[in-house]
Amino acid sequence: MFSEKSSRQLCRAFVALAAVLVIWIFEMGTASRGHAEVRNWSSSWIGLDVLEVLGLLATAVLLRTRPVFVAPVASAAATLFAVDAWFDVMTALAGTDWYTALIFAVIAEIPLAVALGAIAVIAPSRVSPIYPREARATRRWQQR
Predict the structure, then answer these.
(1) What is the 3-state secondary structure (H, E, C) of 83-130?
(2) Of 4, 43, 89, 144, which residue is least crowded by CB atoms under 10 Å?
(3) pLDDT for 39-61, tens place per residue?
(4) C-alpha 135: how far from its chain's center?
(5) Tens of pLDDT along 131-142?
(6) Full-model pTM
(7) Helix 41-65 to helix 70-91 angle, to the nearest 10 degrees?
(8) Alpha carbon distance 48, 65 (integer Å)
(9) 57-85 burial, b if ≥16 CB within 10 A, otherwise e?
């Protein structure tokens, strides 16, 4: 699908981003927001961030081990990042909180969603010949 070097670099980048997100999850979990009066608000955001971490890690693993299966996982992860960006910006308070949410969306979440979406689109057309049985299954699925 990708060259060996670029595949390794993508995997490392996704694992590093997942590690940063784990740190962010702990930061969110310990911060007392107090702005919203919604039950389990922090837990909802932490749950979304955990799913993003799992999406990045699964995409990294599948890029290296089973590239034919990376498209649906990368697509789901891209969707999670897009939803996170949307809700962060739309639920932020006016002022500094809103600008911070917008900056995170523009610098991190939207580019990750685009990159993961691109992987999801490109992956089916670049199945590695190492997995001929999976390549045949992918071709049969695409012909339907």
Answers:
(1) HHHHHHHHHCCCCHHHHHHHHHHHHHHHHHHHHHHHHHHHHHHHCCCC
(2) 144
(3) 666 777 788 888 998 998 999 88
(4) 25
(5) 555 555 555 555
(6) 0.66
(7) 150
(8) 25
(9) bbbbbbbeeebbbbbebbbbbbebbbebb
